[in-house]
UniProtKB/TrEMBL annotation:
Domain PUA: 234-307
Key words of the record: Amino-acid biosynthesis, ATP-binding, Cytoplasm, Kinase, Nucleotide-binding, Proline biosynthesis, Transferase
Top-level division of the source organism's lineage: Bacteria
Natural source organism: Belliella aquatica
Keyword Hydrolase among record annotations: no
UniProt xrefs under InterPro entries: AceGlu_kinase-like_sf, Asp/Glu/Uridylate_kinase, G5K_ProB, Glu/AcGlu_kinase, Glu_5kinase, Glu_5kinase/COase_Synthase, PUA, PUA-like_sf
UniProt-recorded name of the protein: Glutamate 5-kinase
Signal peptide residues on this chain, from the entry's feature table: none
Pfam families reported for this sequence: AA_kinase, PUA
Entry coiled-coil feature ranges: none
Lineage of producing organism: Bacteria, Pseudomonadati, Bacteroidota, Cytophagia, Cytophagales
SUPFAM superfamilies: Carbamate kinase-like (SSF53633), PUA domain-like (SSF88697)
Amino acid sequence: MKVILVSSGAVAFGKKEIQLPEKLNPVLKKQIWASSGQIELIQTYKLLFREQRIQVAQILVTKEDFRDRKHFLNMKNCIQGLVSQDVIPIINENDTVAITELMFTDNDELASLTAAMVNADSLILLTNVNGIYTGAPEETESLLIKHVGQETKDLSAFITASKSSFGRGGMLTKLNMSKKSADLGIQVFIANGKKLNTLENIFYNRGEYTYFEPNKSKQSTKKWLAHGDKYYVAEIVINEGARTALFNQKISSLLPIGIVALEGEFKKGDILSIKDESGNRIGLGRAEYTSTAAKEKMGLKNQKPIIHYNYLYVFHND
C-alpha cells in the first residue's frame, strides 16, 4: 500500500509560535504564521513517522501548480518518485504565496486534486464526525448515510454550514469533492479522524463512515481536466451540432466549425470552459492552439481540432 498525506495546520502552529499585532494586514499575518508554522507542522510529522521508521517529505503547492500542465506533471513525477522509494509525501497549500483567488477551498479540494493526479484508487477524507448524516450529526434522529452510489440523489440538502476555526470549507466541500472523485473512478471514504483505529477500520471494511462508490475510471488527462472548472482561463461557445457530437457515444474532438464565439484570450495548453448557446457549461478541454488562431479558424471546415478528444472532459457523459 502506498500512502500520500494531505495536511493543513501550518497557520494554527504559527499562531502558537508568533504573536502578531491585531492591526497587521490579515493576509500578511497569515503568511507569517504559515511560513513559521509549516516548520513545526512538518517537524511534528517527521517525529511521529520516525517512531515507525518511515521517512516523510514536504511538498507545498498552489492552484497554479494544477492549472499549468507542465507544473502538474513535474509535481506528479515528484510525488510518484517519493512514493516509489517508500517516502510519504506530506502535501499542504503554500499559504505564504497564495492569494485569495488562487486559494483552494480547503484541503479536501487539494486532496481530491492530488488523488486524481496520481490515479489513486482510494481517497479518505477525515473530519470530526462519522460521515454524512440525514441531518445535523448532533441530532439523535439524524442517520449516518453509509453508502453513496452513482445514482444516489443530491445530498447537499442534508449538509449544515459549519466550519472549523482555521478551515475555509466544510462538509459541503467534502461532499462535492467526494462526488467528483467517485465520478473519476476513485472510491472515497468520509470518516471521523478523531476516533481510534479509523484507518484500520476502513481497511478491514468495518466501523462507521460514508462510502462513495466509484464510477468507471477515466484516463489521467481527463482526471486533470475534471477539476479545471476553477482553473479555466477562457470560454468557448459552441453550436447545437457540436454539442450533439460531444455527447454522442462516438469519440469526437471539438472542431472549429462548431465554435460560434470565444470569450477571453488563451494560449496553447490552457484550460478552456465549453458552453452551449444557451449558456450551459458542458465541459472542459485543453487548447490545441491560441485564441488568435482559433478566431481565424472559427466556423471553418477541414481544420485541426481546437480541443482533441484525449484532452476533453464532458460533464455527466459516462
